[in-house]
UniProtKB/TrEMBL annotation:
GO molecular function: methyltransferase activity
Pfam families cross-referenced by the UniProt entry: Methyltransf_31, MethyTransf_Reg
InterPro entries: Methyltranfer_dom (IPR025714), MeTrfase_reg_dom_prd (IPR018773), SAM-dependent_MTases_sf (IPR029063)
Transferase found in the keyword field: yes
Entry's Gene Ontology BP terms: methylation
Entry keyword Methyltransferase: yes
Domain Methyltransferase: 8-97
Protein name: SAM-dependent methyltransferase
Keywords assigned: Methyltransferase, Transferase
Occurrences of domain Methyltransferase regulatory (ranges): 161-242
């Protein structure tokens, strides 16, 4: 929410949670980062719905909520959607789904039951229940029948106690079939648009051709959607619904030609082999060379890209498809705006400045809001150190290197890493930030 609010300073955001701790933490971060366009409401969804002043929204985002609340709360959520989403407005709703979660559901039931006799607060009871179950598991036939659950159980052992309590001791926790969610949304006038997990919108990237064809033969959308969830054994969905109807599909070119996209990492590292649920896809050498060069300019539209790529013999559809696949695989990101790269006057908004300081102070991985991406740009703490030196006026890349080296030496003073190794790491990072990261972030409007 805060990253989005930072990326859209002219938007107005309302953040709601029933838990006062979450609201206090989020509000204090917003204050610290000088983000002033979020209104925080410590309220239940029921209380939110009852407010006379509650406005009509362009977007409503429910991340990690629908599977974690009771039936009556979901009813209230749907009432909010039905009455407070503008015509044409969009809802993002994520939830745990079947069939991917099915083998693990009994595990949760057993954990909840075991936790009833454990001592301590909910976090301690969750940890205790997990330990008891871990000792029992080798004797229980259920685990032999479902080896994937053992993998899940082993992963939970490493989670924090609070996460375990939140995840397992929540009696409302539920999984859904995506078709049932779609029906609930249809009943309040919302139509399914697609998945916010972009790769899920491209059947070709999910399953092989024979499977795709077999599923496509099924007579209804509902059957096809469910069959895809089974084909991918999906356990989590991030669905987008619209208040209205979905326009009939135009051609891919018409649909995307004006949409800008950009790299959110060093363009030289855009990979030429991406892994999708279906397998690996590789891209031609000359296509990648041209693309990496273009992406150094910041955000550019499909239309502009096509004009620059492939020479006279270019195959527009193939270029387009490759770009869509690279976006679906997360190598490129769709943007809000095309940005004409500025000269880089080393100006950062107070929000960006304060976020950089926060990253350095806490080591937290906090994406920086970019008005061009309309989203966050991921950043490493060491890069943040170099960027602050740049903002403070470093005149050449050497002047970025020494603060980074100093930071690394400080951070690793208790480890076996040798000083020279850290210094060469510092030189590499300083060079990279000066040559690549700064121009890229100027291109993405994070600095002006
Ligand atoms: C799984 S957490 C997800 C939190 C956050 N959206 C995220 O993705 O990190 C579910 C959240 O729903 C909130 N919640 C549960 N019941 C609620 C209700 N009736 N009204 C408002 N918020 C509620 C909880 O306090 C909790 O913060």
């Amino acid at each position: 929410m805060l990253v989005n609010a930072g990326a859209y300073p002219h938007g107005h955001f309302i953040a709601c949670d029933i838990n006062p701790d979450h609201i206090i933490e989020a509000r204090s971060r917003a204050e610290r980062f000088a983000i002033h366009n979020v209104e925080f409401q410590q309220a239940s969804f029921e209380e939110l719905l009852a407010q006379e002043q509650l406005p009509q929204f362009d977007f409503i985002v429910l991340h990690g909520v629908y599977s974690w609340v009771a039936t009556e709360v979901r009813t209230t959520i749907r009432q909010i959607l039905a009455t407070h989403l503008k015509p044409g407005g969009l809802v993002y709703i994520s939830y745990n789904c079947k069939p991917g979660w099915s083998p693990e559901e009994p595990l949760r039931k057993l954990l909840v039951e075991l936790s009833r006799t454990e001592a301590g607060d909910s976090a301690q009871r969750a940890r205790g229940a997990l330990q008891t179950l871990n000792q029992l598991s080798s004797k229980l036939n259920y685990f032999k029948q479902h080896p994937s659950v053992i993998t899940g159980l082993n992963a939970y052992i490493h989670e924090s106690d609070n996460y375990l309590a939140h995840e397992f001791l929540n009696h409302s926790w539920q999984t859904f079939y995506s078709v049932d969610i779609a029906e609930e949304m249809n009943n309040i006038g919302l139509a399914f648009v697609g998945s916010a997990t972009l790769v899920d919108n491209h059947p070709f990237l999910l399953v092989d051709e024979a499977t795709h064809e077999a599923i496509n033969q099924l007579p209804t959308d509902r059957q096809r959607q469910l069959a895809f969830d089974f084909a991918c054994n999906r356990r989590f969905r991030r669905d987008i619904f619209i208040n209205g109807t979905v326009e009939p599909q135009k051609s891919l070119l018409e649909l995307v030609s004006h949409i800008p996209f950009a790299a959110i990492k060093d363009p030289e590292f855009i990979t030429d082999i991406v892994t999708t649920p279906r397998g690996k896809i590789s891209f031609g050498k000359s296509f990648m060379v041209e693309l990496r060069t273009l992406m150094k300019q910041g955000a550019i539209s499909f239309h502009q890209t096509l004009a620059h790529m492939g020479g006279k013999s270019r195959n527009e559809m193939e270029i387009l498809r490759n770009l869509v696949f690279l976006i679906a695989a997360g190598e490129l990101q769709v943007c809000q705006n095309v940005h004409v790269a500025g000269t880089g006057n080393r100006v950062a908004s107070p929000t960006i400045r304060k976020m950089l300081e926060f990253i350095i102070e806490t080591g937290a991985a906090l994406p920086l809001p970019s008005p061009v991406l309309g989203n966050g740009f991921p950043l490493d703490v060491v890069e943040a150190v170099a960027l602050v030196s740049w903002l403070d006026g470093a005149e050449n890349r050497e002047q970025l290197v020494s603060p980074v080296q100093q930071y690394l030496r400080q951070r690793h003073r208790a480890t076996a890493l040798r000083g020279e190794e850290l210094d060469s790491q510092g030189r590499r990072i300083g060079k990279q930030v000066w040559n690549v990261l700064v121009p890229q972030m100027v291109g993405l409007g994070i600095f002006t």
